[in-house]
TrEMBL record:
Single biological process term from Gene Ontology: UDP-N-acetylglucosamine biosynthetic process
Residues that, per the record, bind substrate: 389-391, 509-513, 518
Domain Alpha-D-phosphohexomutase C-terminal stretches: 502-537
Positions of Mg(2+) binding: 65, 291, 293, 295
Class of this enzyme: isomerase
Entry keywords, A to Z: Isomerase, Magnesium, Metal-binding, Phosphoprotein
Pfam family, one: PGM_PMM_I
Gene3D superfamilies named in the record: Alpha-D-Glucose-1,6-Bisphosphate, subunit A, domain 3 (3.40.120.10), Alpha-D-phosphohexomutase, C-terminal domain (3.30.310.50)
Annotated active site: 65 (phosphoserine intermediate)
Family from the record: Belongs to the phosphohexose mutase family.
Name of the protein this chain belongs to: Phosphoacetylglucosamine mutase
UniProt superkingdom: Eukaryota
């Protein structure tokens, strides 16, 4: 049993910097790493508290994903391998903002351990309750890991560090740790056994042909963002080799490159540029980029004369949707009775992707606010929920009902294939490693080149900008962030500007991971999308207290 005096004493080693007011944002707490020790210590307390309250193992991932190397952050993982429920975020923010050790104890005792916030126990972990911890490659990881361990242990809960692992690997491990009460904690190898095992089973039989006849069809060049993906992706090389794919890793961190600097999925998707260390990659090659913690994936191909042809998260979603639809069409009708399929996007989804989904695939679509926590929840409401952010975060969720029905018909080849897909695709959170295997499998199966995939639909030209304002919380939104509510009058001004552009669409929202306001615009041609984004950024600058030079 724990003792709040021990918590109080341990907390005194991790004082909160004055004037630091963290909040649980789009994907957990994020900030400059030097500010975060108290936050991570308190997240250790929180993860341990949830383990106690739910009588299950929980998880904590120390990462700032695609952010610059000097940032860091922490994401909490619940016993089911999913993200911490949103209902708990306010308490997390309150705990992180306590000014002294007495306040930390008070919030923990009165708010965290109050019956209102705890929820009901789901699965019995048996054995020793443990918080599973992972971290990315940031130099600040060791000291923040020490803070997390101190927080967990202050509540007399065990902590197990998996070291440098990807965010999706940690989510997977937390989920599997809770499957069999009192079983030993899973090894990282179990992740590869399940995901790569399903891939090998799916590709068995050798009837898969190389994707197209292009001379580079066997080559896959992966930009690892100088992040944690490099080491873990290396372990896929033999599996892909069995499919005739030669995977070459770039930006592995071993050449001295900086994390996420001019490389990685966020850079490629937002700047539409070839990542550093890839200038020698032949035009037309199949390439992909992951982000710093390998939960995002985008594909691309270098173009003649520079630039890239990008296949973003929307395109990944459509490829998965098309393929899964093909397989489902082979299933007996009774198996599909009442099975709901749904595709979840955010306002950042390209208008052409949404139109393809609705008009060609005729799939029900849902639009949620930015952040996987919203998309994941919406996808869970369907039996087969496909969700991807345009930046490459996402996965395909299979409901229990659907999996049970597939299991009952496992002798049917299409049912078996979907079951294997449900294992290949990480069910806890979006996963770049599992995503690469899925895409490589589908491309082979359909005998598609990147060009075939790209041709599913043509993206509307778009532009994303960000700018700083005095207080980004002065901007509030509604309707899945597509409409600005405050400052008063800003939406009218934006709507007026949009009306001057053919196929114009634009919106603004405060970032949940950076001190910035993001602007998105799309229009019929690139110059117009650029111009619309600039005009909208100006409106934000003028009406919401822009800082620095006017856009
Ligand atoms: C436009 C954009 O790409 N936003 C990203 C970014 O959130 P912001 O709240 O926009 O900073 O980081 C999130 C976490 O990685 C990711 O879920 C989200 O999609
Ligand atoms: Mg990430």
């Amino acid at each position: 049993m724990f003792d709040f005096n021990i918590v109080r004493k341990a907390s005194s080693d991790y004082p909160k910097p004055a004037d630091f007011h963290p909040s649980y944002g789009t994907a957990g707490f994020r900030s400059k790493a030097t500010l975060l020790s108290s936050t991570v210590f308190r997240c250790g307390l929180l993860a341990a508290s949830r383990a106690i309250l739910l009588n299950s193992h929980t998880g904590l991932m120390i990462t700032a994903s695609h952010n610059p190397v000097d940032d860091n952050g922490v994401k909490m993982v619940d016993p089911n391998g999913g993200m911490m429920p949103q209902s708990f975020e306010a308490v997390a923010t309150e705990l992180a903002n306590c000014e002294d050790d007495d306040a930390v104890v008070a919030v923990l005792r009165d708010r965290v351990f109050s019956p209102m916030s705890s929820g009901s126990p789901r699965s019995a972990a048996g054995g020793a309750l443990t918080v599973l911890i992972g971290h990315d490659t940031r130099p600040s990881a060791p000291s923040l890991l020490a803070a997390a361990l101190a927080g967990v242990r202050a509540l007399a809960v065990h902590a197990h560090s998996y070291g440098c692992v990807t965010t999706p690997q940690l989510h997977f491990l937390v989920h599997s740790a809770n499957q069999i009460p009192a079983a030993p904690l899973p090894q990282l190898q179990s992740y590869f056994d399940v995901i790569v095992g399903a891939f090998l089973e799916l590709t068995k039989g050798g009837e898969l042909e190389a994707a197209g006849a292009g001379s580079n069809s066997s080559l896959l060049v992966v930009d690892c963002a100088n992040g944690v993906g490099a080491e873990q992706l290396g372990k896929l090389v033999p599996a892909l080799e069995s499919l005739g794919v030669e995977m070459q890793l770039r930006n592995t961190g071993r050449g001295g490159g900086q994390l996420n600097y001019q490389c990685g999925a966020d850079f490629v998707q937002k700047d539409r540029l070839l990542p550093t260390e890839m200038n020698d990659v032949p035009v037309g090659s199949r390439c992909c980029s992951v982000d710093g913690d390998a939960d995002r994936l985008v594909y691309f191909s270098p173009l003649k004369g520079g630039g890239i042809s990008l296949l973003d998260g929307d395109k990944v979603a459509m490829l998965a949707a098309v393929y899964i639809r093909d397989v489902m069409e082979l299933l007996p009708a009774e198996l599909l009775h009442d099975i709901q399929v749904c595709c979840v996007q955010t306002a950042y989804a390209n208008g052409a992707a949404t139109a393809y989904l609705q008009n060609i695939l005729r799939l029900p679509t849902v639009c949620t606010p930015t952040g996987v926590k919203y998309l994941h929840e919406a996808a869970h409401n369907a039996d087969l929920g496909i969700y991807f952010e345009s930046n490459g975060h996402g996965t395909v969720l299979f409901s229990k009902t659907f999996v049970e029905r597939l299991k009952a018909m496992e002798d049917h080849p299409a049912a078996k294939e979907l079951l294997l897909l449900s294992q290949l695709i990480n069910q806890t959170v979006g996963d770049a490693i599992s995503g690469i295997l899925l895409i490589e499998f589908i491309l082979r199966r359909k005998r598609w080149t990147l060009q075939d995939w790209q041709a599913l639909y043509t993206d509307l030209p778009s532009r994303q900008l960000k700018l700083q304002v005095a207080d980004r919380s002065s901007i509030t939104t509604a309707d899945a962030e597509r409409v600005c509510i405050t400052p008063a009058g800003i939406q009218d001004a934006i709507t007026r500007v949009i009306s001057g552009f053919t196929h114009g669409r634009a919106f603004v929202r405060p970032s949940g991971t950076e001190d910035a306001v993001r602007v998105y615009a799309e229009a019929e041609i690139q110059e117009q999308a650029d111009e619309l984004a600039r005009l909208v950024a100006r409106i934000v600058y003028d009406m919401a207290g822009g800082v620095g030079p006017r856009p």
